[in-house]
Write a structure and sequence with these properties.
Elements (H helix, E strand, L loop, with lengths): L1 H11 L3 H16 L5 E8 L2 E11 L8 E2 L6 E2 L3 H16 L9 H4 L13 H5 L18 H9 L15 H15 L3 H13 L21 E2 L4 E2 L7 H5 L10 E2 L1 H12 L22 H7 L17 E2 L16 E5 L3 E6 L4 E7 L11 H15 L2
Antiparallel strand pairs: 1-2, 1-11, 2-3, 4-7, 5-6, 8-9, 9-10, 10-11
Helix pairs in contact: 1-2, 2-12, 3-7, 3-8
């Protein structure tokens, strides 16, 4: 570990002590059984480096244990919200198809019931719509059409714009808005307008369970008598076919660093993306959209600090640690994934774990803080 960390520090232009400390924190949590393995991806001033430890799949049904590596695809869970759904919605706003004040019911008429007629796209993005956080779709015996009907006609849990309720239902609706506006399935829209342009070569909403060795295993699933591997962990996404606005993305640390770099460059396609940008198009998002998405939109709601999609410094779901600055932003995923970006330091940190492998009781909250602190502290060396 030490020699790899030293090489990484030199490559990134960071302090060796901080990089070693981040790696050591990961190895401690693996030894403690919090997660079987992890991949850390770091970008500083445009330079990338990754570190992997432990196992992506400790006990596959067939074959030997599969080590975690920089090429391991992790179930990103709710990172899907900011990596897939957010940029596509912002593009539609850039193109004049939507605005933040567009009523959801104008695009999805069935949504405009039980007091939801005035709910806006912006409120869905910031989790201020008043929709409930979650619902059980997967065990009701419903077909997919019925599940979507239940999602879109769900009543409000609270008055809009009065509190932040982190809602999967809002991002399910946003995914449908994208599909209806672009007349494309969400996975195809993401591939065409985001992942291909950014050179996110492995990122997908349609994984191949037949290639299980490529994926980090998540929770044990009784119906298949095995750990989920290349099958989305989120029950709602699984029941709906995996292509959803709130969860379902699988990606490597390198894929997510490419995406983070676009944000560090305020919407521009990085020169290293190696993408076919179609006639010289050099941006995923306008600079205005990137700036707007990373400033607070919930200052009127006590105890919250939300951008468009992004969690900002000081929000109750802030996982940035102690040393990242007031302009940082990021997101986490239930399976144990996270991405955090500090534009002032030109730093992005992706931490991918499969902490649900042994069940849902393990937490990587302290690990995230420790890794972010160590790497942020290493910037000034």
């Amino acid at each position: 570990m030490e020699s790899h960390a030293k090489a990484g520090a030199e490559q990134l232009g960071l302090g060796i002590k901080g990089v070693k400390s981040a790696c050591a924190a990961i190895e401690r949590e693996i030894a403690a059984g919090t997660t079987p393995g992890a991949v850390l991806g770091v970008m500083h001033e445009g330079k990338q480096w990754s570190y992997s430890a432990g196992y992506a799949n400790p006990k596959p049904k067939q074959g030997q244990p599969v080590p975690a590596s920089k090429d391991t695809l992790y179930d990103c869970a709710s990172l899907t919200k900011v990596v897939v759904t957010l940029p596509l919605i912002l593009q539609l706003i850039d193109e004049g198809v939507l605005t933040l004040s567009t009523k959801v019911s104008d695009i999805l008429p069935s949504f405009g019931t039980v007091g939801k007629e005035e709910i806006t796209v912006g409120q869905l993005l910031t989790h201020t719509s008043g929709l409930q956080a979650d619902m059980n779709l997967h065990s009701q015996g419903w077909d997919r059409e019925r599940m979507w009907d239940v999602v879109l006609t769900a009543p409000l849990a609270t008055k809009p714009d009065t509190e932040v309720i982190y809602s999967d239902l809002g991002y399910l609706a946003l995914g449908r808005i994208i599909e209806k506006s672009l007349e494309l399935p969400l996975d195809q829209a993401f591939k065409r307008w985001v992942s291909d342009l950014l050179g996110m070569r492995h990122a997908t909403l349609t994984p191949s369970p037949e290639e299980a060795s490529r994926y980090a295993a998540t929770e044990y699933e009784n119906t298949i008598q095995d750990h989920l591997c290349g099958i989305v962990h989120d029950e709602k996404a699984r029941a709906l076919g995996g292509v959803c606005g709130h969860a379902g993305l699988f990606a490597t640390a390198g894929d997510l660093l490419q995406y983070a770099r676009m944000w560090l460059e305020q919407g521009a396609i990085p020169a290293t993306a190696g993408s076919e940008s179609g006639g010289g198009e050099s941006r995923i998002l306008s600079r205005a959209a990137a700036i707007a998405a990373t400033r607070t939109h919930t200052g009127h709601i006590h105890g919250t600090n939300r951008g468009l999609g992004w969690v900002l410094k000081g929000d109750k779901m802030d996982a940035s640690g102690d040393w990242m600055g007031p302009g940082c932003y990021g997101h986490t995923g239930f399976t144990g994934t996270s991405m955090w970006i500090d534009p002032e330091l030109d730093l992005a940190v992706v931490l991918l774990t499969n902490r649900v492998y042994g069940g849902r009781g393990s937490s990587v909250a302290q690990l995230r803080a420790q890794v972010h602190n160590a790497l942020t502290g290493a910037v000034a060396w």
